[in-house]
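Late entry, evening session. Most of the bench is empty. Finally got around to the prediction I had been postponing all week. Sequence below, unchanged from the version circulated by S.P.
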Amino acid sequence: MLFKIKSYLYFLWKSTNQHGVHSPFVYNLVTKCFYNRKQRASYPSIIAIHKDNTPEISLKNIKLLNRLIAYLEYKKILILDNSWNFIGQVLSIDNSSTIYYSLEDLGQFDFIYLDIDQLKKHQKFLDILFSKVHNDSLLLLNSINKSKENQSIWEQLQNHPKAKVTINTYHFGFVFFRKEQEKEHFVIRL
């Protein structure tokens, strides 16, 4: 418990909002998606699903995931998480996406949602994942600040040569592969 308190205080100290972001791509993502408070038609369904499942992910973050798919117009989604059914339901509401639950599915994905615990078990798993992304893909990890081990995995991802833009929102770690962009790391308060 002490670790979580210390890591959250450190996060607050390092984090910024849209005013500390100089990348046009990240600024637009933060202002038009992360901070978008407009009511979406999907929210009543998301609230009902959230109540039925009582997941570790907050309702605020679940709504963000749903907005994210619509904002980035992602069509091909891969979910590799223990709560895959719940996440899949949330991501598919009012989004015209196809959701996959196995790396055995062919091709590359626009969006990969990953339980960070899978990277703890299989370090070579990262190379496989990175072969399944394209320039505009997003790899999203949960619970990046839950433990020292999770933070270490997150730091390794940030330093990977293919990871160009990373965003730490405390609960989620966003990894973008945009070759046209300089390598940058952001710590953003939601």
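Two things to note before I forget:
The mean pLDDT is 89.
The domain at 2-187 is CATH 3.40.50.150 (Rossmann fold).
Will write this up properly tomorrow.
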